[in-house]
Specification:
This protein is 33% helix and 24% strand. The chain has 532 residues and is an alpha/beta fold. Strand 4, helix 4 and strand 5 form a beta-alpha-beta unit.
């Protein structure tokens, strides 16, 4: 008789999902929702599958505690609590279940928006206490109001659909979505967040929290909103500073703010809660019966596929890359993902086309994994959802990005090289390229007209400047003054006396404030912060 697969579940799942797991005779299920660290380490030792939610940190200690672990399943979208890199190194498949709470989050957005404009919570509480002050709770209609949606991904486009149903004027800002996608979802495309804020009555955010979006709604942008407008955040805390919101509510610049996600949870900023114009819910965007049933059903089915060796629908990593026999293809796949991530961080336009040029010996290889790796690296930086090797091409289609390949076997400057050219509908372009020495040492070799042999790893600064004396010294002095240690420094110029670019790897991240200050150094024209 075959041994049962041991499944440890440490996240609270819907009862239907638990029944499915426990009713499967091939599984030995241990259900310990929200268990402490000691319990987790004790039970994970002989587990083949670990099913988690956000309460469980799956770090190296947990992964190393089990020699049998083959699958880590996250019963949600976010995987920030899992050491993906180490799991991949150990050959452990990590899966999640995205998109199952999309409708719930969109509906909650309108729930808290309607509650805010119609004073529903206050009216409810007044009636419960025996009051009946109808005139006190006079509100506003959504009809003909202008709503601005930041992020037109899975949740954002549902919000756009609902807003049209309320006869609202719908506009959106998303620099990574092609124009036709805006048209498809009935949203007017606006070119900048500031411009969107300036022309709407309601501004609502539907973006992930990352380096690009953290603090994206600065105080200046919130001040650009018309006086008496409303702000909604049902995406992630940290998109704006809550103290700025408190100030704008106090000054009556904002009429109200509806929030489901906060900078600090569960202990919310008391100054924010004390404001009259704040409507709050405790991060319940995914907390519907339907969403939890869908999440539980999906994670159960994905775990079964993984156990049976099938192709799962939502892999976060791809351990199979580690057993590809062609070392060159494997190495260029790793390089392609880094080049894609780099392009996603520095492209100042919305690409409609990407051409991958395979040069030299690599031209004769199977390019499918390399192409997927580029898409995974690029799209992970620009879309509002998780990206895997399985769904990368569908994400590219959603944002209107077309991909083509070109082979150049006659290229002889190096044994092999990869060049990627992104182009936009208005003639913009970005070129990035790289190569791999000895099939195992990746190097960044090209950014537009600049050539390097830089290690694509860690925190990096890309500094473009006029080719004049003193710039390198000024940069070094500035970083030294800020306590930032330089790991490597690569310099290239397009011509003598023209423009130059430095690729600077640093031991720690340079803050956005220091980046802005560095940009004021004489002869510097542009600085990008990059992490690879």
């Amino acid at each position: 008789m075959a041994a049962k697969t041991k499944v440890l579940i440490t996240g609270a799942l819907h009862p239907t999902a638990i029944s499915s797991f426990q009713g499967n005779g091939n599984l030995d299920v241990l259900y310990h929702p929200d268990c402490d660290r000691a319990t987790l380490l004790a039970h994970v030792r002989d587990a083949h599958v670990l099913v988690t939610r956000s309460e469980t940190d799956v770090d190296r200690e947990v992964i190393d505690a089990s020699s049998a672990l083959k699958v880590i399943a996250r019963a949600a979208v976010g995987v920030g609590n899992i050491d993906i890199g180490y799991a991949t190194e150990k050959g452990i498949l990590v899966i999640n279940c995205p998109g199952k709470n999309t409708n719930s989050a969109a509906e909650l957005t309108f729930g808290i928006l309607l509650g805010m404009l119609r004073n529903i919570p206050q009216a409810h509480e007044t009636v419960r206490k025996g009051g009946w002050d109808r005139h006190r709770f006079s509100g506003r209609e959504l009809r003909d109001k202008r709503i601005g949606i930041v992020g037109l991904g899975n949740v954002g486009h549902r919000v756009a659909k609902f807003a049209r149903g309320f006869d609202m004027d719908v506009a959106a800002y998303d620099p990574y979505i092609a124009p036709q996608i805006f048209e498809q979802h009935g949203a007017r495309r606006v070119g900048s967040l500031r411009d969107l804020a300036a022309q709407v009555d309601v501004l609502t955010f539907h973006v992930p929290l990352n380096k690009e979006t953290k603090g994206m709604a600065t105080k200046d942008i919130l001040l650009a909103m018309p006086k008496g407008s409303w702000l909604v955040n049902a995406s992630r805390g940290g998109i704006f500073k809550e103290d700025d919101v408190v100030e704008l509510l106090t000054s009556k610049h904002l009429a109200g703010v509806a929030i489901d996600t906060f900078e600090s949870e569960p202990k919310v900023n008391p100054k924010l809660l004390a404001q009259h114009g704040v409507w709050c819910t405790p991060h319940i965007g995914a907390s519907t019966e339907e969403a939890q049933i869908a999440i539980g059903e999906t994670i159960y089915n994905q775990v079964l596929k993984a156990i049976e060796g099938g192709v799962v629908d939502y892999p976060v990593n791809l351990p199979q890359v580690g057993i590809i026999q062609d070392q060159r293809t494997k190495s260029y796949a790793v390089l392609a993902e880094k080049l894609g991530s780099l392009a996603g961080q520095i492209a100042g336009f919305n690409p409609s086309h990407a051409e991958l040029s395979y040069r030299g010996d690599i031209a004769g290889s199977d390019h499918s994994l390399i192409r997927l790796s580029f898409l995974k690296g690029y799209l992970a930086r620009v879309v509002n959802d998780y990206v895997s090797f399985v769904n990368a091409e569908s994400h590219a289609a959603k944002i209107g990005l077309q991909v083509s390949d070109r082979s150049d076997p006659q290229f002889d400057s190096y044994r092999s090289a990869l060049k990627i050219t992104l182009s936009g509908i208005d003639g913009q372009s970005l070129r990035v390229g790289g190569l791999v020495f000895d099939d195992q040492i990746p190097r960044l070799s090209l950014i537009n007209d600049y050539y390097f042999e830089a290690e694509p790893n860690g925190h990096m600064l890309l500094v473009e400047n006029e080719d004049k004396p003193g710039v390198i010294g000024d940069l070094g002095h500035f970083l030294g003054f800020k306590g930032v240690n330089i790991a490597t420094f690569e310099l290239s110029r397009n011509r003598r006396g023209g423009m130059a670019m430095a690729v600077i790897r640093t031991d720690q991240e340079v803050s956005s404030q220091d980046q802005a200050e560095m940009g004021r150094i004489r002869n510097i024209s542009r600085i990008h912060r990059v992490y690879l």
